Amino acid sequence: MKGLSTMRFAGIALTVFLATMSGSAQTATAKPASNSKTTAQPWKSISIPPLHAFKPVQPKRIELANGLVIFLQEDHELPFINGTILIRGGSRDEPADKIGLVSLYGQTWRTSGTTTVDGDKLDDQLENKAASLETSGGTATTSVNWSSLKGDFDSVFGATVDLLEHPNFKADKLLLAKRQLETGISRRNDDASNIANREAIKQVYGATNPYARQEEYVTVEAVKLADLKAWHDKTVIPNGMIVAISGDFDSAAMEAKLRETFGSMQRGTLIKTTPIHFADPEHKIYFAEKGDVDQSNVVIVGLGTERSNPDYYALSVMNEVFSGGFGSRVVQDVRTKLGLAYDVGGSFGASYDHPGIFYVIAGTKSTSTVAATQAMLAEIDKLKTEPPTPAELSKAKDQVLNSFIFHYDSPEKTLNEQVLLAFYGYPPDFLDKYKSGIEKVTSADVARVANKYVDPSKLAIVVVGNEEQIAPKLDTLGKVTNLDISIPPPPGEPSN
Cβ(315)–Cβ(102) under 8 Å? Predict the structure, then answer.
């Protein structure tokens, strides 16, 4: 495979060389040598107009008397209608002794079907219409998603409402969901990068933090059918739901249908998320042994920020300078110049309602583990001492804005963002302010937030690899704490 890539690269290079020589010869014949430079670089004379104003078409927002929020986004390009019901309450709210409940609920809800239509029969009905209807459980929400041709909307939407109002949780479907989840538990140490990511999250948030804890056999087996039913009754209430529909429909007619369907639902008591404490991780080196690999996965990790932070714009630009793709500092220095990692990246994460994660991650040879870690730490230090150059700043801001625009280049994407903003209590014009916020960021702003939010003494270092092959040893960097990544056995089975 390497030989093929080399040959292909050589062929491309030869083609470019011949084309260049041919072009040069033509230029020399057609024009005096003094003008050849201008002829060879015509792109420099191309004028680049400013970006158009960012004004995506916003969805229509409706709130019913019972607290249900509706978003409607017409899009007549194709004869499809897609819908989502976002329901407040997710895995962060499940009991500590029943971790996995929301995941099991999200799967069993759909596969069980309703009191009138079995889940397997519902599969057949939807397949005949080339439609879909799925449920899932997430960190802060559970959801119902459906999609169909415009002509099949009434029947598919009817099945969706039936599933919402008349679920029929079945023991055999719960058992199937448990076996699938437990298979994941049994294999969670198969991949070194997955181990590194999981353990890094546990170090930055804390192992018992709802955003870091993980399912175990005992917590999965503790979930019963009654728990699924109780969760459904507690969370499926109108004042805890957002219904969002996009596609080929008339908004007035759709609003009337939704009012008729959901208007009579009775308010309930919103699920209360227990306040979660976040503290910086200890500045330690953590190691997990993975003896069947010849490489190391290194993650340097700390707390990030929230999107509501006034410094979010400056941090976004800082993130792009530091780790935003192949041209970023960490990639150019650690991977390209030093050759210490085949894969390196990072992010200063920002979540909607809790601190995200700041991380720098690399995959490297066992023998370059220490050197790669030192180089990553050096880049973090440099972020605090070397403000971005004018070229770095301009490039980073352009990249942030260009990628931002493509996140909202369709009506459905715009709808999804407005739903998330509404769910987490952000103002609807949050996206409108983003472009101007990024454009105002200066090099001094980046330097300021780097020194304010990036503290090497509050970063944990997690390494997963083959200890025998790591040379020099990890303790070259400091004291090493070994991580126990063993998997507790299922209830009733002896531990190894």
Answer: no
Q: How many secondary structure helices (H) and strands (E) does the chain include?
A: 17, 13
Is there a contact between 360 and 287 (Cβ–Cβ < 8 Å)?
no
Sheet-wide strand order for 460-465:
305-306, 343-351, 355-365, 295-303, 460-465, 285-289, 480-482
* DSSP state, residue 72: E
- Other CB atoms within 10 A of residue 93 CB: 20
Between CA 202 and CA 198 the distance in angstroms is 6
For residue 145, the cross-strand partners are 84, 134
Decide: 427 and 69 in contact? Cβ < 8 Å.
Answer: no
CA 492 to chain centre: 37
Instruction: Assess contact for 222 and 98: CB atoms under 8 A.
Output: yes
3-state helix, strand, coil in the chain (%, to 5): 50, 20, 30
| Percent of the residues in the chain that have a pLDDT greater than 70, as a whole number | 91
Helix axes 119-128, 101-112, angle to 10 degrees: 70
Local structure of 44: helix, strand or coil:
helix
Question: In terms of DSSP H, where are the helices of 53-191?
Answer: 101-112, 119-128, 153-165, 171-186
User: Which residue from 282, 382, 274, 248 is spatially nearest to 322, judged by alpha carbons?
Assistant: 382
**Whole-angstrom distance, CA of residue 304 vs CA of residue 335:** 24
In which residue are the tokens 């930055």 written?
A: 204
Give residue for tokens 């209608």.
Answer: 81
More confident of the two residues 5 and 147: 147
Contacts of 100 (CB under 8 A, 6+ apart): 94, 181, 215, 219, 220, 223
Residue type, 139: T
User: Of 469, 279, 413, 424, which is closest to residue 355 (Cα–Cα)?
Assistant: 279
Q: Tokens 């190894």 label which residue?
A: 496
Note the pLDDT tens digit of each residue in 151-173: 999 999 999 999 999 999 999 99
Average pLDDT over residues 374-381: 97
| Bond from prior residue into 472 cis (ω within 30 degrees of 0) | yes
What local confidence, expressed as pLDDT, does residue 54 receive? 65
pTM for this structure? 0.86
The CA-to-CA distance between both ends of the chain, in Å, stands at 41
Confidence of residue 496 (pLDDT cuts 50, 70, 90): low
| Confidence category of residue 447, pLDDT binned at 50, 70, 90 | very high
> Rounded distance, CA 166 to CA 440, Å?
52
Question: Looking at this protein, which amino acid is placed at residue 173?
Answer: K
- What 53-58 contacts at long range (C-beta under 8 Å, 24+ apart), as own/partner pairs, is 54/405, 54/431, 54/432, 54/435, 56/408, 56/411, 56/414, 56/431, 57/411, 57/414, 58/414, 58/418, 58/428
The span from the CA of 11 to the CA of 15, in Å, is 6
